[in-house]
Write a structure and sequence with these properties.
With 185 residues, the protein is mainly α. It contains nine helices and no strands.
């Protein structure tokens, strides 16, 4: 029996194919010829509870940043990304500080980030902070206020606004959704 025939028989058994259309939260679609890292996750049972598994969102973000950093062949971009990862909790972290730490101008830093990562250094810092906040929220060890402080935000309202802008949930909603059982949804 050919693989096409086997696949056709199997696909006829799929009950809810609309779930698997590639529109998952934080999924990225890129030209396969333009990327060096490719990955895919398949956990169909996670969609039965009404929303995709929060852990998947975290994994998508981690892999997205890893692939971006791997594609960032310029040593200054790698150094800047490393500096940001080590200093994201610093409330006063600025583009100027990042640029100075790696010995380039702030203008050149912005140019490099846009060319290699397709984002600004400021947005990259925000993404790193939000990803760390997601991880801390899923650990359920700290209050939202403590997490905001640990991720470089001096104001919980600013943190909540940035978080919701990135995740489409407030930090409290994200934390609550992560710990809900299927029957609570």
């Amino acid at each position: 029996m050919s693989i096409d025939t086997q696949l056709e028989k199997m696909l006829r058994k799929v009950e809810k194919p609309a779930r698997y259309t590639g529109g998952e939260v934080n999924s990225a679609k890129k030209d396969p010829e333009q990327v060096s890292v490719r990955f895919g996750f398949a956990f169909p049972d996670t969609y039965e509870i009404g929303m995709s598994y929060m852990g998947m969102q975290i994994l998508y973000n981690i892999l997205k940043h890893l692939s971006e950093e791997e594609n960032a062949t310029h040593p200054s971009v790698k150094a800047a990304a490393s500096f940001i990862e080590k200093n994201y909790a610093n409330h006063t972290l600025t583009n100027e500080m990042i640029a100075e730490s790696i010995g380039i101008s702030e203008v050149y830093l912005r140019k490099l980030f846009l060319n290699f990562l397709k984002t600004s250094p400021k947005q990259y810092v925000t993404d790193v902070r939000i990803n760390h906040a997601k991880q801390l929220l899923t650990e359920n060890l700290y209050s939202v206020s403590e997490i905001a402080d640990m991720c470089g935000y001096t104001n919980i309202y600013h943190f909540s606004k940035r978080f919701k802008g990135s995740v489409n949930l407030t930090p409290s909603e994200y934390k609550a959704a992560f710990f809900k059982t299927p029957s609570e949804l």
